[in-house]
Amino acid sequence: MMEFDWTTFILEVLNFLVLVWILGRLFYRPILAALDARQEKINAASAHAEQLRGEAEALRNQYEQRLQDWAQELAERERKLDEELAEKRGSAMDMLKQNLINEEAKYRARNEALNTSREAALTRKAAETAFAQSAALLQRLASAQLTQAIAAVFLEDLAALAEPEQAALRKAARMPAETASFDLISAHALDEKDRAALSQALSATAGLDLQLVFKIDPGLIAGLRAVVGECQLDANLADGLAFFRQQSKHD
Questions:
Q1: DSSP class of residue 218?
Q2: What is the C-alpha to C-alpha distance for residues 40 and 46, in angstroms, rounded to an integer?
Q3: CA-based nearest residue to 237, from 220, 214, 216
């Protein structure tokens, strides 16, 4: 039977403790430090990964929000574009209608102007024809007796001449002799009695003894024309026709 050796036992225990100390000193602490460093790296990597995941999630949410904002903005722009197009279509239609109304008004105005011009041309032509016929008729009716009758009317009108016209006649009669002319032109020859009556009436109205020069102009058709300086007194058919013809052109 083996005997228990305390010395050996104690030495074994001491060897074991020394071995444990050596292992703890030389092997366990570096391994634990390496494990701790690795765990810290793993924790740091996990934290970074978590941070990246959070940032990615935030970016995803931001991107989704931007997509929603863009979709809303696009829808709003489409709505505004539709409104603008509808407004422009309405404005274009209104402008087109107004242009059509204006063109119709211009067309009517042109037609009215054309009709008015045609009517005026026809009226002028009819008036010219009427004047020509009247002139031809008056030429046939013209006579010395008609000129004498018009001279009598001229004397009556001269006696009733308004004061401003009389003043103008008196002023014209007093113009220098070298620039003034005193003519009495008749369509037919006047007898001495008519000449004397006309000379006396014109001299009385002018306030001056006028030495009239009597002339004959068949173009007057019938009647006479008195020229006293700058004043001219007409009482003949030719001037009457010309006056009415001019009035018809103005009308």
A1: G
A2: 9
A3: 220
pLDDT tens readout for residues 80-133: 888 888 888 888 888 888 888 888 888 888 888 877 777 766 666 766 666 666
Beta strands in the chain (DSSP E): 182-186, 213-216, 223-228, 231-236
Picking from 166, 163, 172, the residue whose alpha carbon sits closest to that of residue 231 is 172
Give the dihedral sign, CA 114/120/121/122: positive
Alpha carbon distance 224, 232 (integer Å): 11
187: left (phi over 0), alpha (psi -120 to 50) or beta: alpha
β-strand pairing of 223-228 with 231-236? antiparallel
Q: Which amino acid makes up residue 241? A: L
Long-range pairs of 198-206 with CB within 8 A, sequence gap ≥ 24:
198/151, 198/154, 198/155, 198/224, 198/226, 201/155, 201/158, 201/159, 202/158, 202/226, 202/228, 205/158, 205/161, 205/166, 205/169, 205/170, 206/169, 206/170, 206/172, 206/173
Three-state SS at 247: helix
pTM of the entire structure?
Answer: 0.48
